[in-house]
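Hey,

Quick one before I head out. I ran the complex with nicotinamide-adenine-dinucleotide overnight. Inputs first:
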Amino acid sequence: MIIVWMKEGITMDQNKIPQATAKRLPLYYRFLNNLNQQGKKRVSSKELSEAVKVDSATIRRDFSYFGALGKKGYGYNVEYLLGFFRKTLDQDETTEVALIGVGNLGTAFLHYNFMKNNNIQIQMAFDADPEKVGTDIGDVPIYHIDELEEKLNGIKVAILTIPAHETDQVTDRLVEQGIDGILNFTPARITVPNHIRVHHIDLAVELQALVYFLKHYPLQVDQADK
Amino acid sequence: MIIVWMKEGITMDQNKIPQATAKRLPLYYRFLNNLNQQGKKRVSSKELSEAVKVDSATIRRDFSYFGALGKKGYGYNVEYLLGFFRKTLDQDETTEVALIGVGNLGTAFLHYNFMKNNNIQIQMAFDADPEKVGTDIGDVPIYHIDELEEKLNGIKVAILTIPAHETDQVTDRLVEQGIDGILNFTPARITVPNHIRVHHIDLAVELQALVYFLKHYPLQVDQADK
DNA sequence: ATATTATTGTGAATTTAGTCACGACTTCCA
DNA sequence: TGGAAGTCGTGACTAAATTCACAATAATAT
Ligand SMILES: NC(=O)c1ccc[n+]([C@@H]2O[C@H](COP(=O)([O-])OP(=O)(O)OC[C@H]3O[C@@H](n4cnc5c(N)ncnc54)[C@H](O)[C@@H]3O)[C@@H](O)[C@H]2O)c1
Ligand SMILES: NC(=O)c1ccc[n+]([C@@H]2O[C@H](COP(=O)([O-])OP(=O)(O)OC[C@H]3O[C@@H](n4cnc5c(N)ncnc54)[C@H](O)[C@@H]3O)[C@@H](O)[C@H]2O)c1
């Protein structure tokens, strides 16, 4: 077995962009979009910092990976920066997504459908329940999961909101169809070939972790908490 | 203005537990619970690693912050480890939570209500819509947001699933009532006094970040991807 | 018994992320 | 025009997290 490793971040474009930075980009983008809509022309790392709650040095550092986007003594030009990020985040082309599992969570996502500030659209949904199949939710058609192979049509990103015990089976079929990325809301940790990227969002874990932090990590006490 | 800083992680119990470790604890706990229910008696860091997708050295390191929980050459005793984590994660006492905003997401959470493997329970919900007030969802009563002060009754943790533009106003009221922690699903970054812990889960950002990674961070290509 | 195999716990090394602090440059006002 | 104020970009530092790699030890088989 020959394995070719392309370590992350040293390939393709010149992306040496740290992962931590990459995760913050959509946040910056959204906020810049707001500013722009408000007609704001310039913004400093300090202002941004207060709004997105990221240290201003971190913001400057993040931006600097893309070159010198600002002007010393001035700040950043909102429109320019926004345009830059639009290109960087590929906001011009829409990414099509499939959602699997139209239950409580899945339905919520379909109603919301991420199209507010961004380039991502749920194109179709699948469910195993015949009751749900055939209806639309917010213009998104719901197909039966048996039609996955037939309908998926080259979609590369999937959101998984099915019961945990169905996860492996469905994942295998998605992999078979050439999926590239999965946003997994089930508590199951899935196994996929390593060219596929999976992000887990484990809501129960998030809540438990918050509670754990509250009990065990007392925060700063500011005696003049105004 | 006098500020007393208690830096995180050097206070109270002997917790020098790194944050990254703390965030993984609920995950470990859940998986150990599964194992135990399956009647499994022992488990190695390698097995755990495959199941939860965390490097086995990281798992051993994580556990080691709590002392020597395993046996060399053997692994970990599932029951013992589980018992240990139950205590550590305070799984015996239930944490009461309030949910604010019974919309798409909020309703999904109410139906789910986290009580599966853990000690967290949504006790009550609030909404501004009179249509929703008065009904119950899965035994959780829905009150009008105007009753917040009256009903909240010392609850220390809140889940926020309201529209972004309502966030500051509602947050201030929660703070006023002495909330300790907020799990914020709105895209708004909220400002709170620094003894209050806020975790953001920004679903749109997560999805955008996944797409960004797919386009810009080609993963390892395994030529014998079996 | 003894050898073989499995697996921990942890120092040390490495990698990744975050922050400080300041020189360089811009803007803006008097 | 000159100087004060503001802000970036970044080298150097610090901190946090991960991973390597191996001695120590336990379980098991023969
Ligand atoms: N709802 C929440 O608040 C919440 C919180 C944390 C985690 N989760 C996790 O998210 C997932 C979904 O949760 P939910 O509350 O929406 O569950 P749900 O039961 O409401 O929805 C699951 C949906 O998947 C469908 N389904 C079942 N098998 C399928 C298959 N093979 N192919 C396609 N569809 C199939 C069902 O018909 C159902 O509509 C679960 O894994 C759950 O553990 C949910
Ligand atoms: N639904 C999703 O998939 C999704 C995805 C990403 C982010 N979000 C964010 O999560 C939040 C909730 O989303 P949603 O889709 O559930 O929205 P929603 O509009 O369906 O629900 C919001 C609910 O909050 C209630 N509300 C409004 N003002 C209130 C107040 N002052 N006090 C109490 N309740 C109030 C409304 O009556 C409504 O029931 C939003 O901020 C949204 O941006 C949602």
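The pocket of nicotinamide-adenine-dinucleotide (ligand 1) is lined by residues A 100-106, 126-129, 145, 161-164, 166, 170, 185-187, 203-204; B 108-109, 112 (CB under 6 Å).

Talk tomorrow,
K.
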